[in-house]
Amino acid sequence: MISVTDICKDFGGRAAVTDVSFDCVPGTITGLLGPNGAGKSTVLKMLLGLVSPTRGLATIDGVPYRELPNPGRTVGVSLDASGLHPGRTLRGTIRLAASIIGVPTARADEVLAQVGLAPEYGKLVRNCSLGMRQRLSIGLALLGEPRYLILDEPVNGLDPSGMAWIRRLLQQHAEQGHTVLLSSHLLKEVESIADNLVIVDQGRVAARGTLAELIGSEPGVLVSATDAAALRDALDKEGIEHHRQGGDVFARTLAERIGQLALDHGIVVTKLTVASTDRIEQMYFESISRISAVGSEKGV
Ligand SMILES: Nc1ncnc2c1ncn2[C@@H]1O[C@H](COP(=O)(O)OP(=O)(O)OP(=O)(O)O)[C@@H](O)[C@H]1O
């Protein structure tokens, strides 16, 4: 488990992170979300022993990162893809990292293929696109087959297929019982990947919980069906709140329930849109505006 307890960081007397606490349990993906400068990277760096906390404790597997016996085999880290050595090739970079953490060369080549960079193995890092560097950085994180993945802004620079790829990869990692913590300022991306959210603003936790806890357990689904009247009848029978929206039906339930309902009643669904995005956006802005209000009361 990853445990962050009342962690604080001041830089030159200025608070960057204040009393941040959260846990990440195995088998889940946690998204650390917040606007630019909110303190996300500082939290991750404290967790990884790269910045020492002014107060508080951050542990992985019950100990601070620096006390892990072989951190490279336990925790996969991707912090800043622009920090990779520009004069090394992709393969050279990953093989060097493999030799440092005691992983066979064959595994390095396997990871290069896994992140879609095998055809470019001879390219120098300085000649790689941002997306390629991001893939390399994620490959470095995966190298030691770690139980924990800690990724700072992993979707930065990735195109839509790259984003879909990383989503699948992280979900598979969590399904294997591993723990994923990622930071992002991209609300929609985190919403589609994470099981749990920790929203930070101005260094403080603004909101924390599962997506359902934060936006309500039944966010609502917009459904198009060839027979909308039959759909409305079925929703009535099941006692599911609904109303018309254009030619569609907005039902206050989960997509899974609509799928089951359609199957049970033989209704052909032609389109189904989960209408949570605007609610999560609303929740996000409400959370961070509460922190801003506290900050302005304190004259921050
Ligand atoms: N080494 C440092 N020295 C002084 N101030 C720092 C240092 N590192 C971070 N800060 C400050 O701490 C605050 C939080 O920065 P941090 O990089 O953690 O935010 P972030 O949420 O990761 O932002 P972004 O999404 O823009 O990367 C910012 O005000 C930043 O200027």
TrEMBL record:
Pfam families: ABC_tran. Coiled coil: none annotated. Residues 2-227 form the ABC transporter domain. Keywords: ATP-binding, Nucleotide-binding, Transport. The keyword ATP-binding applies. Signal peptide: none annotated. It comes from the Bacteria. GO terms for molecular function: ATP binding; ATP hydrolysis activity. PANTHER family: ABC TRANSPORTER, ATP-BINDING PROTEIN. Belongs to the ABC transporter superfamily. This is ABC-2 type transport system ATP-binding protein. It comes from Micromonospora chokoriensis. The lineage of its organism: Bacteria, Bacillati, Actinomycetota, Actinomycetes, Micromonosporales.
